[in-house]
Design a protein that fits this description.
With 187 residues, the chain is mostly helical. It has a domain of 94 residues. Helix content is 94%, strand content 0%. It contains 4 helices and no strands. Helix 2 runs antiparallel to helix 3 and helix 3 runs antiparallel to helix 4. The longest helix has 99 residues. This is Exocyst complex component EXOC6/Sec15 N-terminal domain-containing protein. InterPro entries: EXOC6/Sec15, EXOC6_Sec15_N. One of its GO terms (biological process) is Golgi to plasma membrane transport.
Length: 187
Amino acid sequence: MSCDHFTTQQESVYDGREHGLFMEKLDVRIRNHDREIEKMCNHHFQGFVDSITELLKSQVTETNRRLQDDGKQLMGSMEELQLCRVQQRNIATTIDKLAHCLPVLEMYTRLQEQMRAKRYYPALRTLEQLEHTCLPRAGQYRFCSIMAENIPKLRTQIRDTAMTQLRDFLESIRKHSDKIGETAIKQ
């Protein structure tokens, strides 16, 4: 077919009633193709939606898993921190209690040393300081109550030991007074 023949047919379609018929057929064909495209899109659209939904589910699941793991680590760290804080409070309380108890123990040790050294007057002063100052500050510990119960016994022991030593000293002087007097007169 020549180009002139094609142009003549094309012109004849646009010239008359055939143009309206051609346009109707063209519209029908366009609608058919649109329906086919829509069917194809609908068919593939559901697969697309399913794919997106599956992708979102896997992303949500992965994000949830990571959050759970991170949450477990955070909870573990928080529990460790809480334990550390409890230990810190316990240590601070222990240090505070020891700060009150150490002077009592030091005072009692000094008292024992003074008694061994037969320094009874300083021992009585230390005993009084222990009874009226250190023990009341220390608190309600068993060793403090035992010490408090022993204070009258210790006081009596110091008094008795001091009196015994004084008697021994006076008796020794009485026994040796003749010799001492004789030596004094010679000099």
